[in-house]
UniProtKB/TrEMBL annotation:
SUPFAM superfamilies: alpha/beta-Hydrolases. This is Alpha/beta hydrolase. Signal peptide: none annotated. Gene3D superfamilies: alpha/beta hydrolase (3.40.50.1820).
Length: 269
């Protein structure tokens, strides 16, 4: 069961599971901690998992003023301090991977390793156009179901649309008691669209695993490869047949791969 935690003056909703080495999970655009349910459930037998709602998502309030990726990275660092976690394996997907990059740059001490799923270092023209569409789509879709049906076209594989997984995820999102407001979605979107670490990736010192889905439309593999090439010693892998969120679609594959990576990091320390 989660709880609200004051992290250096910021109220963050936090979910924690399991025992073992610490893992911090960073969610992406619009997603609460529950987006990581397959990892909260599937990794808690080996790790102490911490996930939380970013500002403006789930139960964490939307603050006044603009959001930014560096500010959300500072939130993550403050949470680690508040929970007295000296070092954690950090994993982020999509916008959460942007936060993870900034966390490793701004607060390298507690970052034991990085897993960056569906990531990029600097938005390209296609991504900027896509996010501009999402910005007005969330306002003009005829209802919330129609908005999610459209949004998830960029997120999940054709397989997930065909086998009913997307329908189930939409039903769960519509039943969620803490839906994200249009304003919060748009402000998070602006923050993530402004992400840029391309010229600073060489300063990241944490061991890094960069994962990309072969079919990802939003952050295609070439963008993840660019991130991996910029981080000294980073490993880059493409997951065949997967899209933007394989940690949800094929959690066993994702969990097995990241667990192997964390064990490699731990063995080298």
């Amino acid at each position: 069961m989660g709880q609200m935690i004051n992290a250096d003056g910021v109220e963050l909703w936090v979910e924690r599971r399991g025992e073992g080495p610490d893992v911090l999970l960073l969610a992406g655009l619009g997603d609460p901690a529950e987006a990581w349910q397959p990892q909260l459930d599937g990794l808690a037998d080996r790790y102490r998992i911490t996930a939380f709602d970013n500002r403006g998502a789930g139960r964490t309030p939307l603050p006044e003023g603009p959001l930014s990726v560096p500010r959300m990275a500072d939130d993550a660092a403050a949470l680690l301090r508040t929970l007295q976690i000296p070092a954690a394996h950090v994993a982020g997907f999509s916008g959460g991977s942007f936060i993870a990059q900034e966390l490793a740059l701004r607060h390298p001490g507690p970052v034991r390793s990085l897993v960056l799923m569906s990531t990029m270092a600097r938005p390209e023209a296609y991504f900027r156009a896509m996010t501009r569409f999402w910005h007005w789509m969330v306002e003009r879709a005829p209802d919330e179901r129609a908005m999610l049906e459209a949004f998830f076209l960029w997120i999940y594989t054709p397989r997930a649309h065909a086998d009913g997984m997307v329908d189930r995820l939409i039903d769960e999102a519509l039943a969620f008691e803490h839906p994200q407001s249009v304003e919060a979605f748009q402000r998070q979107l602006v923050a993530f669209a402004g992400h840029d670490t391309l010229d600073r990736l060489g300063d990241i010192t944490a061991p890094a695993l960069v994962l990309a889905g072969e079919l990802d439309l939003a952050t295609p593999p070439r963008l993840g490869r660019e991130v991996a090439e910029g981080i000294p010693g980073a490993v880059f892998e493409v997951l065949p047949g997967e899209a933007h969120q394989p940690f949800q679609e094929v959690p066993e594959v994702f969990n097995t791969r990241v667990t192997a990576f964390w064990r490699e990091v731990e063995a080298r320390e």
